[in-house]
Structures are given as structure tokens and as C-alpha cells.
Design a protein that fits this description.
This is Beta-ketoacyl-[acyl-carrier-protein] synthase III. Helix content is about 35%, strand content about 25%. It is an alpha/beta fold. It binds acetyl coenzyme *A.
């Protein structure tokens, strides 16, 4: 019995911050940001909206899409590096707010690759026939750990959340292969210091333009498929140039790649489920499509799956 997606949902805060807004804060330009990253705007949560609130909104939408209620959930996994507090976890906060009384709950920390780690963890419990209804969420309020005086990083990030309900699916559907990895020697490329994000952009870039295409291709081959079988690519939305590297390795046209970095920036663990949810809502991803999801992040970490939606 394969594990697959039963419902998707996403949510971003209302406030939009443009590149022109950033020009007023740091020495940067709309032209620099768009040409180097593809980002035009990002959504920023207010003081009254925490990571758990973003996660909750996305989860309610995913549960409605799956046609299930909170009390039916057996496991809640939340990928985040910006939980409201160290404990309780965002997953436990959600468990309470969704009335998911019988669900186990924990957060997953793998930075921007966190959603892939969560999804693959969920897959194991589902394929072992342990659980039939698992909620996997990626949620971040990166704005609270962004150094708004550092032009190298503050132009990149945004807030938001995406969620999937996962469970057993019919033969031929669901996750066909995955790849997970970590390289702890990359701990100085991307890390948190005194609460704030620190990044060696060039190091992260070099790692990501190699890893994203490699992992994308690996999951296709591991599934016994060829590039021609891939219908859609949902890459972590960190930088359009990195996303393009993955797309070109899979030889798929632009319209077959999720592209929302222009609107939301890099929302870390939330970026893949937000992009997936949008493409499903827009009918760009439809049942039977072979979809590659691929992400990388601080750690360094990476993960990819090939699933038939
Ligand atoms: N506006 C204007 N100039 C800037 C800005 C800015 N916002 N930021 C940096 N610059 C300057 C730099 O200071 C540098 O100037 P210098 O040559 O005088 O030193 C110049 O622009 C070029 O810098 P580069 O690092 O060469 O620029 P690059 O083309 O590599 O783009 C970027 C930088 C966008 C950060 C790129 O390296 C990148 O995308 N890296 C990956 C980042 C990433 O994906 N992070 C993911 C985090 S995932 C997670 O876990 C949260």
C-alpha cells in the first residue's frame, strides 16, 4: 500500500512587502533582487500572527480538501525552524486547535528541506500500516529571525504555510521513490546566530545547484521511470536560478515547474507545500501526474520524492 496525498492547503499572511519597500530599508534594488533571485514580493506576518497560526490556517484548508476532520488524524508532523517557542511544538499546538485528540505530534527540523523529511517520515508510518491519516505541514515566520539590516539575506525570505493530508492510496498512486540526505560539514553555510539567519550565499548556491538536479534525477531513476515520464516539478523556491538547474536536468518545459518564488520569496519549509497546493488548486497538477518534489536547506540537508498524484 503506497502513501499518497489526500488533500492540500496553504496560507500566507495578508501584508505584502515589495522590493521597493526593501530599497527603503537596505542598500538594494528591485533590479538586483529580481535578476539574482526571481523574487518580486513576499508576505510578512504581523505581531498578531505566529508560525502556529499560519500552520493552523493551512491545515484547516488541507483537512477540508481531504474531506476529513481533525479528530481523525493519527499523526501530525510540522516542519519548521521558527516555532512559536522551543516547546510545546507547533505540532502539539495544532493538535489542540484541530481537536486531533488521538494524534501523536512532533516538529521536524531540517530547515528548508523539512517538509521533504516530514513527508518521507509520514510515508514510513503509512506504508507500515500504522496510520491512515497523517497531517504534514511546513510553516515558517522567517521574518522574526531575519536580520533586516543584512541585504545579503533580508531580501530573500517570506512567511507562510502549506499542508498535506497523507494516507494510503490506490495502487499506482502515491510515493514511488525518495531520497534524503544531510551533510553536517556544511554547518557554516547557513545557520542561526543570536536568533538571526546567517548565510554564505555563494556556498549555499554551489551546493544547491548541484544537489537539486542530482536528487531530482535520482528519484526518477529509483522509481524505474525516465525523465519523459515526469509531468511536473515542484522545487524548493529559494532562487529561480537554482530551480532552473533542476528543471533543465529533467528536461521539462517551464510551464511544468511550480513557480511562486516571485510572489512569496523563500518560505523555507513552507515553500514546497505552498507551491504544491497552488498547482493543485490551479489544476496544473491533476490525478495520475508523476510529480517530483525536491528541496534543500540548512544543515545542510536535502530530500526529494517522486509521487503519482
Ligand atoms: N542588493 C544589492 N547587492 C547585494 C545584495 C542585495 N540585496 N545582496 C548582496 N549584494 C551584493 C554582494 O555584496 C556582492 O557584492 P560584492 O561583489 O561587492 O561583494 C554582490 O552583490 C554579488 O554577490 P553574490 O554573492 O555574487 O551574488 P549572487 O549572484 O551569488 O546572488 C544570492 C546572491 C542571491 C544570495 C545567491 O548566492 C543565492 O541565491 N544563494 C543561495 C541562497 C539560498 O538559496 N538560501 C537558501 C536558504 S534555505 C534555508 O534553509 C533557509
Amino acid at each position: 500500500m503506497a502513501a499518497g496525498i489526500l488533500g492540500v492547503g496553504h496560507y500566507v499572511p495578508k501584508r505584502v512587502m515589495t522590493n521597493l519597500d526593501l530599497e527603503k530599508i537596505v542598500d538594494t534594488s528591485d533590479e538586483w533582487i529580481q535578476s539574482r533571485t526571481g523574487i518580486e514580493t513576499r508576505h510578512i506576518a504581523g505581531d498578531d500572527e505566529e508560525t502556529s497560526d499560519l500552520a493552523y490556517e493551512a491545515s484547516v484548508r488541507a483537512l477540508a480538501d481531504a474531506g476529513i476532520q481533525g479528530h481523525e488524524l493519527e499523526l501530525i508532523l510540522v516542519a519548521t525552524i521558527t516555532g512559536d517557542m522551543a516547546f510545546p511544538s507547533v505540532a502539539c499546538q495544532l493538535q489542540n486547535r484541530l481537536g486531533a485528540k488521538k494524534a501523536a505530534a512532533m516538529d521536524v527540523g531540517a530547515a528548508c528541506a523539512g517538509f521533504m523529511y516530514g513527508m518521507i517520515t509520514a510515508q514510513q508510518f503509512i506504508e507500515n500500516a500504522e496510520y491512515k491519516k497523517v497531517l504534514v505541514v511546513g510553516a515558517e515566520k522567517l521574518s522574526k529571525i531575519t536580520d533586516w539590516t543584512d541585504r545579503n539575506t533580508c531580501v530573500l525570505f517570506g512567511d507562510g504555510a502549506g499542508a498535506c493530508v497523507m494516507g494510503p492510496v490506490a495502487d499506482g498512486y502515491g510515493i514511488k521513490s525518495f531520497e534524503l540526505g544531510a551533510d553536517g560539514t556544511g554547518d557554516t553555510a547557513l545557520y542561526q546566530e543570536n536568533e538571526l539567519i546567517r548565510m554564505n550565499g555563494r556556498e549555499v548556491f554551489k551546493f544547491a545547484v548541484r544537489q537539486m538536479p542530482e536528487s531530482s534525477e535520482n528519484v526518477v531513476l529509483k522509481a524505474g521511470l525516465t525523465k519523459d515520464d515526469v509531468d511536473f516539478l515542484v522545487p524548493h523556491q529559494a532562487n529561480v536560478r537554482i530551480m532552473e538547474a533542476a528543471r533543465m536536468r529533467l528536461d521539462i518545459p517551464k510551464e511544468k515547474m511550480a513557480y511562486s518564488i516571485n510572489k512569496y520569496g523563500n518560505t523555507s519549509a513552507a515553500s514546497i507545500p505552498i507551491a504544491l497546493s497552488e498547482e493543485v488548486k490551479n489544476n496544473k497538477i491533476t490525478p495520475g501526474d508523476n510529480v517530483v518534489l525536491v528541496g534543500f536547506g540548512g544543515g545542510l540537508t536535502w530530500g526529494a520524492v517522486l509521487l503519482t498524484y
